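Q: Can I see a sequence and its folded structure?
A: Here is a first one.
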Amino acid sequence: MSTATKSAKSLQTIAPAPVWINNILFLTDFSPVSTAALRHALSAARRFAAKVYVTHVLEPPPVAPAPGAFYEAASAREEAEKKFDALLNDGELNDVLHEIILSEGPPSRVVEEIVREKRIDLIVVGTHGRKGFRKMMLGSVAEEIYRKASCPVLTIGPENPANPESEMSPRRILIATDLLDRAHRACDYAIAMALRHASELILLHVIEDQQVSDFGRAEQQRLASLARMEGLIPAETPLASRPKLIVARGHAADEISRTAREYKADLIVIGLHGGERMAAFFPGTVAYRVICQAPCPVLTVPAAIHE
């Protein structure tokens, strides 16, 4: 065994703790994409016997409100209450433990408070894609939510098929890793899911084209990356099959989406960096592109998860 491989394997020796989800925060703006994402939240709730907090956040009025702003805010609240009543009346929530939350304030702050108070283990949110993502109630802050969340966030993008059962009982999980130490938490989470569901694991590391200048150096970097990827999975982990390790060259978002399609992944897992979380290898623009292009849900896992 090479020194690089020994060093890599020494990084990860303890099997990850099992994944269990007790409380789910589902964010909705009542759009069709939110309706689709709700099915994923309910699928997870049924699988883990979890409680779902179905939440809509009303934007606060401006500091110097325009004439009629009070009535507009009251109308928005009344409309949200009617939509919640319709959701409750259609019976889709009947077989899961649930609570309706209608709150007002900056969405990211409201989400942070709910995550802390309700001890949320998973946030589920849908997105329209490139245009709607920035315009919808959640869109303007969705990136901030998955960047700052202290728990994993499952984002349902516009390219996802209507198959909510697959990502919580995935046959194939694609882990996109930058091979930094903080990548271990996401790998642990994905490995725990793979153990629970006998899933196939696919580990992907993308070397950006500008990071290499000649073939010899590129091959050396590829071999070093493979050695480090082996160290992300404990040697004695009883996986259903041998993990597939892939080192690709190109643009990270494009290669992640392409690999997910090629291997028919049911779930993409990306580890977020501490502090700025998405700075460095997975900047917000890359994560955003992955979510918009991905053929399956994307689970973003922070470097540290609250206990």
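Q: Show me another, different protein.
A: A second, unrelated one:
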Amino acid sequence: MATVVITAPPAGEPVSLAAAKAFCRVDQSLEDDLISGLVTAARLRVEQAMGLCLLTTGVSEWRDVWRPASGRGSLRLARGPLQSVTTVAIADSQRVFHTLDPAWYAPLPGSWPSEVGATPLAIVQPTARSAGLRIDYVAGFGDTADTVPQTLKLAILALVAHAYSHRDEAEPPLSAAEPWLSAFRRVQL
């Protein structure tokens, strides 16, 4: 199990306030703050459910060990698509992190699910008992809203519209956006 921390949130949202208001058929500005908040909440919900970062986002992932998830010895990261790996570090028994030489791992940019492959050099395992492996990386489709697939934008709009129309509910069901999310679901065998 990985602990994922967003270290550099995206600079904006993949769906503009104007687009969300038009989708909800709102033509006044009294509830702009509410609708903006719903857009952010919907993006976070989609990202969490799908294991994605829609726009360029800095991520720090903490794991106990390097445990390959594929036959190639690659470590599968929690968020994608992978743009780059900044640092891979392991902790010693004193919880001091040591940065690995980049020659010891091979990021697979553009991969989703995101993967970092081990090179023929063996990955040294951390001696700290828990969360001794830290991978800092950048994930997302790109820096601007036009790089995000339209279906994911429609999923956000569907969640925003449902939340706006059903304010008495705790949160909109993810099923409200399922037609647009199904193409991005990761299947595990």
